[in-house]
């Protein structure tokens, strides 16, 4: 099967103004960071990945005008914050200092891709499950080619919305089975409406719990030792698995394990101020 196509890179995508702020020039992590990457280049690559894997035109994406990278000593790894137009990514110098030199460049880029997605993705007006928000960010990191080697596909014993790499690989599998740009469409659905689990059925024909059960069955069929990171390359190309590696049944209209949820009438295009039509899920009250 041919590789999944890499999204185009339109020159019209608007990049924000990039800034960097360093809190302690004497910190060992500062030299490690600056010796490994060009700050503007890695920030631009991170924003570009968000555009490539979550949007088709700049009219759909949030209008971020300024993105500031803040390098400082702090617990954890990184986080994103800020207003709609002015975003900040806080990156731990303590974490940077402790990453092995042979992995540092790719790890810095991967973390920044993840955090840049948080600056650009939609979250259903704050109602989207945190695990799905984090999973979409790691999905973009995976597709962009910056997944770390310790990531593993995990199924049974986990929930689909466990977040991070667990959900990222699940979303990757959904997109392979139900169509390129499915995650892009999922992100679009999270723009103007509150989150509803049924949007997965709207996009794929299957409830999310059924999708997860198929995915878990797929993982069991993989050869032993093949559940690590194998789908991304540094260029962003993603090799597709053979169609016969998993047996996914056709959607059955009578099957529905989400009967306890409100019905979705239909999906329709809503014109947003004359911009490109935006997909939205219309829920019954």
UniProtKB/TrEMBL annotation:
Coiled coil: none annotated. Residues 238-262 have a biased composition (Acidic residues). Residues 237-269 are annotated as: Disordered. InterPro entries: Uncharacterised_BSP. Pfam families: BSP. PANTHER family: PLANT BASIC SECRETORY PROTEIN (BSP) FAMILY PROTEIN, PTHR33321. This is BSP-domain-containing protein. It comes from Coprinopsis marcescibilis (Agaric fungus).
């Amino acid at each position: 099967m041919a590789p999944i196509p890499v999204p185009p890179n339109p020159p019209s995508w608007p990049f924000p103004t990039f800034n960097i702020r360093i809190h302690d020039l004497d910190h060992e992590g500062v030299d490690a960071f600056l010796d490994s990457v060009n700050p503007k280049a890695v920030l631009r690559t991170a924003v570009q990945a968000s555009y490539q894997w979550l949007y088709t035109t700049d009219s759909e994406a949030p209008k971020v005008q300024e993105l500031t990278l803040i390098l400082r000593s702090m617990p954890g790894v990184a986080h994103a914050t800020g207003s709609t137009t002015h975003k900040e990514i806080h990156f731990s110098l303590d974490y940077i200092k402790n990453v092995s030199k042979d992995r540092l460049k790719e790890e810095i880029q991967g973390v920044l891709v993840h955090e840049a997605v948080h600056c650009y993705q939609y979250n259903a007006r704050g109602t989207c499950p945190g695990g799905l928000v984090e999973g979409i960010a790691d999905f973009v990191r995976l597709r962009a080619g910056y997944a770390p080697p310790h990531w593993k596909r995990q199924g049974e014993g986990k929930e689909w919305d466990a977040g991070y790499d667990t959900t990222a690989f699940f979303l990757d599998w959904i997109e392979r089975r139900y169509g390129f740009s499915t995650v892009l469409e999922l992100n679009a659905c999270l723009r103007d409406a509150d989150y509803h689990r049924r949007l997965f059925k709207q996009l794929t024909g299957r409830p999310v719990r059924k999708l997860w059960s198929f995915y878990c069955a797929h993982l069991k069929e993989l050869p032993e030792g093949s559940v690590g990171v194998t789908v991304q390359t540094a260029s962003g190309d993603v090799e597709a698995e053979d169609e016969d590696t998993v047996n996914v049944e056709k959607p059955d209209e009578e099957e529905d394990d989400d009967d306890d949820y409100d019905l979705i009438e239909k999906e329709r295009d809503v014109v947003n101020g004359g911009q490109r039509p935006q997909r939205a899920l219309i829920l019954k009250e």
